Amino acid sequence: MFKVSIVAYRDGPVRARNGLSVNSDYTIGDCPQPEILIIPGGMGTRPLIKEDGLIEWIAKTSKSSELTLSVCTGSLLLAKAGLLEGIKATTHHLTFELLKKLSPGTMILPGQRYVDNGHIITAAGVSAGIDMSLYVMAKILGEEPARKIAQYMEYNWCED
Length: 160
Fold this sequence. Notes:
By secondary structure, the chain is an alpha/beta fold. The protein has a single domain, classed as 3-Layer(aba) Sandwich (Rossmann fold), CATH 3.40.50. It has helices spanning 45-48, 52-64, 74-80, 96-102, 126-141, 143-152, and strands at 7-8, 14-15, 21-22, 26-27, 36-39, 67-71, 88-89, 107-108, 114-116, 120-123. The protein has a four-stranded mixed sheet. Strands 1-4 form a two-stranded parallel ribbon. Strands 2-3 form a two-stranded antiparallel sheet. Helix 5 (126-141) packs antiparallel against helix 6.
């Protein structure tokens, strides 16, 4: 049904929070065009804002994807790529000011767990990212399969 691939900016393992090592399937230079592009967040997004190659790839790849999603501070990378200008969005509550600085024309919705603009959907934080993912699953597969996934995960889905 879904083929999930991890794409890294550069070749080699990516160190996530607390030293978790994530191994990518592709780099931005050799990955196939995704139907759904998901940009994760975390502290690692701050230095990536300055990586023009990555920002250009996000902007280009988003144009061809069916959906572009961000979780938490992944929205900062979407903002830097110009994808949030003139639309509504959310991000982690501690980075509202940085998002506004990167994309002054974005209408930030602080109380929303996720915001759907059609092609671009942003989520506030980690658990909000789970809610957004279930919402997207419901859009694609229908509400019943999304509810079954939430139940399987023993997750109390907060539908906005």
